[in-house]
Design brief:
The chain has 294 residues and is mainly alpha-helical. The chain is built from 14 helices and no strands. Helix 2 packs across helix 14 and helix 4 runs antiparallel to helix 11. The model has no long low-confidence stretch (mean pLDDT 89).
Length: 294
């Protein structure tokens, strides 16, 4: 039957058929839940009752005026700072391991292995590393004469940087592999021509490497920013937001509001605010990264 139709009609039918199912799944599992989330953010739904009373922007006012809710965003700054350092380290190791270093394949595997580990398992692993009394880190520092009684997860001043350092260890290898793939796509002739012209290593990096991997840098920064704003597993497993809420993240606050206090309306509003925050931060990032390049 289909073969009797004109070729252009057949092509349109096939294209629509291939697009229809993914689009249906996208609407069902992405756009509809997102719209429902926005609708619930204007209600006081407790998650169980059939009544969902409309309360307007009351939930949003609560989010922005309650420092115990909106103020936890400052705890995510540590993850963003460490994430930037992580990308710099990933670029460095990618450049080093892209050369003719002996054993480079072993070192690539060694740096990438932490990424394939389960996040909860990694959290428990570092729970022993950062333990105040029996932790391996304090033991090593004690042997080196640099102290050995630091409460890495019990200090309000740097607990978030301690947790973020775990993310550094886990995700740096993943970013390195992405940068490494980008570096291997750069023609070697460019570097050879630059060497003939007398360019040093810094000039090669600045004028050849960075422009050619710029989009990959932008991609990894996108993943870094979203990861920093949406971090959950490490503080939840290791500190449960402690000490005294110093490591509680915005996602942890959302889950606590929804499942502990049964305030799904407020939790929905917080989720929408998080989504807006991610969009705003990424838009600012994209503006500064692409300024003068288009």
């Amino acid at each position: 039957m289909l073969s009797r139709l004109p070729f252009e009609t057949q092509k349109r039918i096939i294209i629509v058929s291939f697009i229809a199912l993914p689009l249906l799944l996208l609407l069902t599992f992405s756009y509809y839940p997102a719209l429902e989330l926005i609708r619930l953010s204007f209600t006081n739904w407790d998650g169980m009752s059939q009544e969902k009373d409309w309360i307007g922007f009351a939930n949003y006012r609560e989010v922005f005026t309650n420092p115990e809710i909106f103020g936890v965003f400052k705890h995510n700054i540590a993850y963003f700072v460490v994430g930037i350092v992580q990308n710099i380290a990933a670029i460095y190791f990618a450049i080093v391991l892209n050369g003719k270093l002996k054993g480079r394949y072993f070192f690539r595997l060694l740096l990438f292995l932490p990424y394939i580990l389960n996040g909860v398992a990694v959290a428990y692993l570092f729970g022993y590393v950062f333990d105040t009394t029996d932790g391996s880190l304090n033991f090593l520092l004690g042997k080196l004469g640099l102290g050995g009684e630091t409460s890495w997860l019990g200090s309000e001043s740097f607990v978030n940087y301690t947790l973020a350092s775990i993310g550094f260890w886990r995700f740096m290898g993943f970013n390195m592999v992405i940068y490494l793939a980008a570096l291997q796509s750069i023609p070697a002739d460019l570097y050879e021509a630059a060497s003939i012209d007398g360019a040093n290593n810094w000039q090669k990096f600045r004028f050849i490497t960075v422009p050619n991997i710029y989009k990959i840098i932008e991609l990894n920064l996108f993943l870094t920013v979203t990861g920093a704003l949406e971090v959950f597993d490490l503080p939840f497993v290791l500190t449960n937001g402690g000490p005294a809420g110093a490591s509680e993240t915005f996602v942890m606050k959302i889950i606590e509001t929804a499942f502990q206090f049964n305030d799904y309306g407020l939790a929905s509003a917080m989720s929408v605010v998080l989504l807006i925050a991610v969009v705003v931060v990424l838009s600012i990032q994209r503006y500064f990264l692409n300024r003068g390049r288009d």
